[in-house]
Amino acid sequence: MKDFILKEIINDDIEKELEDIGFDASYRTFAQDKFKYKNIKVYSLNPAQANIIKQAAISVGADCATHRDVITGKAESSNVIIGGSFSQIKKIADKLKFQPFGLKILGERLLKVLEVNQRQTQIVGILNVTPDSFSDGGKYINEVDAQKHLVEMIEDGADMIDIGAESTRPNSVEVTSEEQIKRLTPILNFIKKENIKIPISVDTRSSVVADFALSCGVKIINDVSGFDFDSYMPSVISKYNAGVIVQHSRGNSSNMQEDLGYKNLIDEIYFSLKEKIELAECFGIKDIIIDPGIGFGKTREQNFEILNRIEEFYYLNRPVMIGVSRKSLLGIKEDDNELKDSLSAAISYPLVKKGVDYLRVHNVGLHKKLVLTI
């Protein structure tokens, strides 16, 4: 007997796959939703809500996992996981629109989840005006060299430039606000003098440095501590009606790699970023980019789990930035930036395919070519 030939389809364009097998063209667009699947986690539901969702899922042939004590009423609350095709989840959402306990809102949210948004990755060039950054410390501390590199990155296609005057790598030494301002002043004056229009962010944890940078015309502050280092940071950003990049991290440069235990890595980072978004919004900050903080209080394995599951952070409805460029997760100990850049681009490829909004990189030209090729 002839053996059967099987393979899994790993292709977002399921409509094209249906076309290839000769599926009815008049039904193809509608039918594709039956072949696309999602597992969606909904948090902190009361037993009544969880039971209704479960029954709605079962009624359309989908799955819904709840806490084991929901059915008995002993659980005060439960997270649930809804699993099904796009078609089934749409039917669940339609059913929830007519249910009590606020489930109409959940139904509307589920429909939003299924919307396909075309995300175009933008490249953020790194300019370190520091003597001790992990990959290029001292290379651009000279005023002329910094200016030249800034112009080169813009010519290579950078969509944004992120300027840092303090290294925040593990075990780095804290730099005073006065010293950071001293390092930043020449390049910010150059940007203003040359009337450079590309968005500029300044990488700092200090509200004093942020105030100075924003007064010089900078529009975005990249706070790797996510407001944890300096509680005045949100009010300063708000004062200038500026934007912010909030990153997840643990501790500071001296101890960030000591507490690496997470009960649920992605959930903990997700809710930490959610709290930071809400804090920023309380201060009237509207332009918010989130960064799960690769290398900041995570093991190499945890970093790759974040990268593999990056799309989960899209549910926070904010642009997502990732920085893997030349970091230790590459596994390269020798001082070979060319090799590190190649590996950084290789790791970035699936991120671009998944539509991550921003890649923060050292080699702008290489990563820009990657984005334009995909």
Concise structural overview:
The protein is an alpha/beta fold and about 375 residues long. The chain is built from 13 helices and eleven strands. The protein has two domains: about 35-115, Ribosomal Protein S8, Chain: A, domain 1, CATH 3.30.1370; about 120-374, Dihydropteroate synthase-like (TIM Barrel, Alpha-Beta Barrel).
Describe the structure in your own words:
By secondary structure, this protein is α/β, with parallel strands linked by helices. The chain folds into two domains: 36-113, Ribosomal Protein S8, Chain: A, domain 1 (2-Layer Sandwich), CATH 3.30.1370; 122-373, Dihydropteroate synthase-like (TIM Barrel, Alpha-Beta Barrel), CATH 3.20.20. Helices cover 40% and strands 15% of the residues. It is built from 13 helices and eleven strands. The chain has helices at 14-20, 25-31, 47-59, 86-96, 103-113, 143-155, 177-193, 207-215, 233-239, 265-282, 300-308, 337-353, 364-373; strands at residues 37-45, 63-65, 78-85, 122-128, 160-164, 200-203, 220-223, 243-247, 288-291, 321-322, 358-361. It is globular and about 70 Å long. The two termini are 43 Å apart.
Beginning-to-end CA distance, first to last residue: 43 Å
- Spatial strand arrangement across the major sheet: 9-8-7-6-5-4-11-10
Question: Low-confidence parts lasting 5 or more residues at pLDDT below 50?
Answer: none
Rg calculated over all Cα atoms: 24 Å
